[in-house]
Amino acid sequence: MSTQKQKIAFYGLGNMGASMATNLIKSGFDVTVFDLVDEQVKRLIDAGAKGASSSAEAGMGADIIITMLPAGKHVESLYFTKHGDGQRLVDVVQTNALFIDCSTIETNTSKSISSQLSANGHRFVDAPVSGGVAGAAAGTLTFIVGGATSDFEIAQPILANMGKHIFHAGSVGAGQAAKICNNMLLSILMAGTSEALNLAIANGLDPKVMSEIMLQSSGRNWTLELYNPCPDVMPNVPSSNEYNGGFMVDLMNKDLGLAMDNASDKSAITPMGALAKSLYQIHAQQGYGAKDFSSIFEAFKTSK
Ligand code: NAD
Predict the structure, then answer these.
(1) Pocket test for ligand 1, best of 15, 19, 54, 74 (most atoms within 8 A of CB)
(2) Which residue, of 152, 171, 190, is where some domain finishes?
(3) Which domain holds residue 31?
(4) What are the phi and psi torsion angles at 198 (to 5°)?
(5) What is the mean pLDDT of the chain?
């Protein structure tokens, strides 16, 4: 399939999907969009997309279907349920179409969706992303893809217009599994770094100096390098902007929930992930749900 001839149907034009679809349009793809929110569709039509009055209409004759939806139930329902016009998406797309799901959903749901699509004569890759809203806007997302090599080879040149790093993690479901492992580790690193910096502050140390010391010592990690959780240590990060922007605590909680369900399913031992999940859950209940996940720093303050 050449780029010019591919007909892409893109579903889910929220914080991430609107920018991703816009980047595909800028690269010259033929993109038809659909979202439950009319306003989101109008914004994309203004950016050069084709609109549709129903999800089935948007997918009519599409070779490539991209979804960026909140959760697994939305993806499954969009693909396989009869909608208002009585049509199922799987029945109106091209035969042997490739479905690329970029949402973060359960590994088992991805596998089940893949089997159902295969039974309907279609193909599937899971392709969750890392890089957040800023990465989606800049077209620098990391895609972590699970699926057959032949399907990855079709998805890769399309995803490359929305992201910088495109990994093939393994078979269907491997993208979702890799994504939750990464985010579980990230949550642990963020909580641990916050705890260490607060202990340093309680000892009268300057958090900027302490951050420098750890950056040059064995505590070095991504949060210290690029995303320091202590206010005013680093410019242009959420901690220096009252924890606004970035990656919301609610979304981290969603990913930790997926990680814990998966760990239970696999009988994997994840005590650090479980503790991080508890910490982030309490943090959300204390009113931080819509704040950036680095705000967990506040939970470790000795004097508030
Ligand atoms: P969002 O809630 O902003 O957008 C989701 C969009 O999907 C909404 O516009 C909603 O109206 C639409 N939608 C729901 N059901 C639909 C349907 N049946 N048909 C068409 N549209 C439908 O969410 P988001 O922040 O863009 O995140 C999307 C996915 O990406 C989630 O799975 C999330 O976990 C993941 N993700 C988000 C981030 C982030 O920083 N926001 C980062 C990495 C991954």
Answers:
(1) 15
(2) 171
(3) 3-171
(4) -70, -35
(5) 96
